[in-house]
Each structure stands twice: as structure tokens, then as C-alpha cells.
Amino acid sequence: AQKITQTQPGMFVQEKEAVTLDCTYDTSDPSYGLFWYKQPSSGEMIFLIYQGSYDQQNATEGRYSLNFQKARKSANLVISASQLGDSAMYFCAMREGPDDKIIFGKGTRLHILP
Amino acid sequence: EAQVTQNPRYLITVTGKKLTVTCSQNMNHEYMSWYRQDPGLGLRQIYYSMNVEVTDKGDVPEGYKVSRKEKRNFPLILESPSPNQTSLYFCASSLGPGNYNEKLFFGSGTQLSVL
Asked: How confident is the model at residue A36 (pLDDT cuts 50, 70, 90)?
């Protein structure tokens, strides 16, 4: 069973609009971390934002925020005021468990339209 | 500068010719991992290591070997590459084990083509 599910293979969004990228996860471990990474066309993996399972507040980093709904096991990435440079592949990932496995979703390709 | 150095950046080889992709980090991280990225499949973990001389299989270990003789290095070995191993490979490192709040630092990737 997939532990990280990203249901949107691709999205098109108008520049300056806000965009939400969906991520749901599955774990029975009470301690875990959720991460979002951006992969532009150049290929490198860029860390965006982190949310811990015990964090009471949603994480924010500049234009990025994480909508963490623990009961629903969702960790959606919200990008406010999108820019052309936000066009990229976005991956959600989870780190959990005593074996310290770090699992990634299949990604969402975001296209920002001028 | 803190970094994960992965080499080579691009590699074209033929079926059956052994190859090694090197990975080195300068952050004294215990945790190191290899991923492969394929269209529509995201990043899948090949092997990971929680410390020197400790390695574990990820989700797609078949056809790959790793070793962790030193803390900083974690090479990926393909003893007999096949075309289905054509992929983009990433090495990553992090503090660990047990530090579930620590992010992964990634290398720049290796695009491997097996003909």
C-alpha cells in the first residue's frame, strides 16, 4: 500500500493565484515528519518545508505553508501568489519509524501560466 | 560548504558492464540513502544506511549493491546493469537515525542510461 499519495499528477495555475498541492499519508507511528521538495527542470531537489507530527501549528516558510490535518492524515502544500518560477515537480515525503525509512510520493507537476 | 557530492552527473554504459556511482557528504551525517526517479513513479528508495557498516534494503534493491565503509561515502554499485536500470539516481544524507524531523540533503543526481 502506498504510504504517500499525491493525487494530482499535473496542475495548471494562473500566475499570482494561490495553489494547493495535495498529499495524504499513512502511518501508525506517532512520531513522523512530513516534507515537501521542489524539483525544477534543472533536476536538483530543493527542500521547501517541514511539519512534525507533534507540531501544533501549521508550518510556514515565506510563500509556502503546510496545511496539516492530522486526523485526516493530510499535509497539503499551499503556495501563495504563485510565480512563473514555481513551475516544477513537487514531492511530498514522510520520515517515520525505527527503521528510519523516508518515503516519497509520485509527485505533482505544477505549471504556472503567465 | 555543506554538500552531498555525487559523481558522475551523466553516465552512458552498456548492458553487463559493472559501474559505480560515488556519493560523499561533508556534514558528518549518519544517514545516507540512494533513490531512483522514474517518470510517474516518483522517488523510490534503493538502499539506505543508518551508520558505518549498516545498510538496509529499500523498496527496489534488486540489481544494486552498496557499501558503507566510511561515514562520508556511500557508493552505489551496479554489478551487471540492465536497460531497466536506466534512471535518474539521487544520493541523499541526513542526521539520523531517529531524527524524523531532519530533512534530506540531496546530491545533484546521476542520469544513467544503460544500452
From this structure: very high
Q: What is the pLDDT of residues B11-27, one digit of tens each?
A: 999 999 999 999 999 99
Alpha carbon distance B67, B47 (integer Å): 10
Residue B6 identity: Q
Smallest Cβ distance to A102: which of B45, B98, B109? B45
Provide the residue count of chain A.
114
pLDDT tens-digit map of B72-90: 999 999 999 999 999 999 9
The CA distance from B111 to the nearest CA of chain A, in Å, is: 10
Chain A residue numbers touching B48 (CB-CB < 8 A): 100-102
Nine-digit cell at A110?
Answer: 505544477
Beta strands in A40-107 (DSSP E): 46-52, 60-61, 64-69, 74-79, 88-96, 101-104
Q: How far is A68 from chain B (nearest CA, A)?
A: 15
Euclidean distance between CA atoms A77 and A67, whole angstroms: 6
Q: Residues 53 to 72 of B: which have CB under 8 A from any A CB?
A: 56, 58-59
Distances (CA, A) of A40 to A43, A50, A87, A96, A109: 6, 19, 7, 26, 10
